[in-house]
Design a protein that fits this description.
By secondary structure, the chain is mostly helical. It has two domains: about 30 residues, no CATH class; about 35 residues, no CATH class. The radius of gyration is 14 Å and the shape is elongated.
């Protein structure tokens, strides 16, 4: 789903689309996110990102310094 679809679902169900989508991450096979979510320790802790047994692909990896 894109952000517009999440917003529409949130309005109809009267829920916060951000937190509803955040909860769905645990069951996902593929997760797309900005690279700083993986690099920044505080963000990783906030989102409870764990990458044991994961394959991580950085698009635009030249931006990671």
């Amino acid at each position: 789903m894109d952000i517009e679809e999440l917003h529409e679902i949130g309005k109809k169900a009267m829920i916060c689309p951000y937190f509803a989508n955040k909860d769905r991450v645990t069951g996902a096979d593929i997760i797309f996110m900005p690279y700083n979510y993986l690099i920044d320790e505080k963000i990783r802790e906030n989102f409870d990102i764990r990458y044991e047994n994961a394959c991580i692909i950085f698009d635009e990896a030249h931006n990671v310094a």
